[in-house]
């Protein structure tokens, strides 16, 4: 189970011994848990595994090495330190390129900063903003749009704030506070009922093993011992939860506040000649929506719903051809028109090649080049690829040296396509990829 479903499903696991683990998976919409027995590595228990264990990283490396990575058109030439070495105290959240090719990095949790770098990474300016800037982008006129802390800002090309307005989804979240509270209460109660309902299921599993007509194998006997141990643990958990039959108001308030904060967050923002698009958590449920509005933040409306994303990330980018969304949990890119009508989608899960998308949830981010090509970025793997707007695979751009993990890996492409930039949240820097001389020569020959 990975982060994609953390808000949709709750799971508990316990090591049964003999190389098996009992996993209890429960939907927040149902109190009926599912049981799975999974084979696990011997001599490894949950207590021995850190958040990101060395065996896990090594396993990811082996899987990556098993895939034959083609020669890319670009190579990594530098990194731009956004804050960890130059200006400590604020982490990068997102970035974009302006019309001059300068990088605008949105940093901090509020109040925050927009840090302006030249293409080679020299810090030029720092603009203070009164919000925690979560997403940033620039339109064709050079106006800068920033989203964060439930607000939308419009800045001129020098960083002066021209317009500030409450984001439409934030207003909707506040209006649905009562429903959020109901959802939280239901979720908290379902966790408690899941524990109680597990007890008879475990008892039945033990009974079925003991009632076998044939003689119990050594493996069966070991399973019975393990099941009985887990049953004892669940009975203790159920007894503890009986003492607190209803969640307290303080517990509910804390969960509602956390859920509201998550739903207020803007995952990405994009602007074209006439409109702005933002991607954020759905007001109801656990998916993602795309909102469209005018340049002055008026006339907001939801144009796309039901998107599935991982780790709080859903990337939307617009151009003359419409909007492109990296729906990472479905391993595909979706192409919509401005009204949200799905025109096409492409992509598949692919752990053995590069034309599809690998790892747990990719592509994580997209960008649209000046020639209309769609660039995709894959977290954990660091792959960058090019596709046509109708989904035809055009080639491998390159592999970025990236800290593994499921996370936002925003990418931007220079107007001439010679440079591609990717964000690495973990190291708090932006990676610079440059077109290889041989690729430049080949491109020139094709154009001539």
UniProtKB/TrEMBL annotation:
GO terms for molecular function: ubiquitin protein ligase activity; zinc ion binding. The keyword Membrane does not apply. Keywords: Coiled coil. This is SMP-30/Gluconolaconase/LRE-like region. One of its GO terms (biological process) is protein polyubiquitination. It comes from Gimesia panareensis. Residues 199-244 form a coiled coil. The keyword Metal-binding does not apply.
């Amino acid at each position: 189970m990975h982060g994609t479903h953390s808000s949709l499903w709750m799971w508990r696991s316990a090591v049964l011994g003999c190389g098996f683990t009992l996993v209890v998976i429960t939907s927040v919409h149902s109190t009926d848990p599912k049981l799975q027995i999974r084979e696990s590595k011997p001599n490894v228990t949950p207590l021995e595994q850190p958040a990101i264990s060395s065996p896990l990283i090594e396993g990811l490396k082996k899987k990556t090495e098993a895939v034959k990575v083609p020669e890319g058109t670009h190579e990594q030439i530098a990194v731009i330190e956004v804050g960890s070495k130059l200006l400590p105290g604020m982490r990068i959240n997102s970035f974009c390129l302006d019309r001059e090719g300068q990088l605008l990095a949105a940093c901090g949790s509020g109040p925050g900063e927009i840090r302006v770098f030249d293409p080679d990474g020299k810090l030029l300016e720092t603009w203070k903003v009164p919000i925690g800037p979560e997403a940033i982008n620039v339109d064709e006129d050079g106006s800068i749009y920033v989203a964060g802390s439930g607000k939308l800002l419009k800045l001129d090309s020098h960083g002066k704030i021209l317009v500030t307005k409450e984001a439409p989804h934030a207003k909707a979240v506040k209006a649905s506070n009562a429903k959020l509270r109901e959802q939280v209460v239901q979720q908290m109660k379902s966790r408690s009922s899941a524990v109680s309902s597990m007890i008879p299921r475990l008892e039945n599993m033990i009974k079925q093993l003991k009632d076998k007509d044939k003689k119990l194998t050594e493996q069966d006997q070991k399973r019975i011992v393990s099941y009985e141990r887990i049953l004892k643990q669940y009975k203790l958990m159920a007894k503890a939860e009986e003492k607190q039959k209803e969640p307290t108001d303080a517990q509910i308030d804390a969960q509602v506040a956390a859920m509201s904060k998550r739903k207020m967050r803007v995952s990405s923002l994009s602007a074209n000649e006439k409109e702005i698009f933002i991607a954020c958590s759905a007001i109801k449920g656990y998916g993602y929506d795309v909102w469209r509005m005018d340049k002055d933040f008026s006339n907001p409306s939801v144009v796309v719903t039901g998107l599935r994303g991982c780790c709080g990330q859903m990337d939307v980018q617009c151009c003359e051809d419409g909007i492109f969304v990296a729906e990472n949990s479905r391993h595909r890119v979706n192409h919509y028109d401005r009204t949200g009508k799905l025109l096409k989608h492409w992509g598949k899960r692919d752990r053995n090649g590069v034309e599809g998308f690998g790892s747990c949830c990719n592509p994580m981010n997209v960008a649209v080049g000046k020639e209309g090509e769609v660039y995709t970025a894959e977290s954990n793997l660091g792959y960058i690829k090019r596709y046509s707007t109708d989904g035809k695979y055009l080639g491998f751009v390159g592999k970025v040296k990236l800290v593994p993990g499921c996370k936002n890996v925003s990418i931007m492409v220079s107007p001439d396509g010679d440079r591609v930039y990717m964000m690495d949240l973990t190291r708090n820097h932006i990676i610079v990829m440059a077109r290889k001389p041989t690729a430049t020569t080949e491109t020139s020959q094709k154009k001539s």
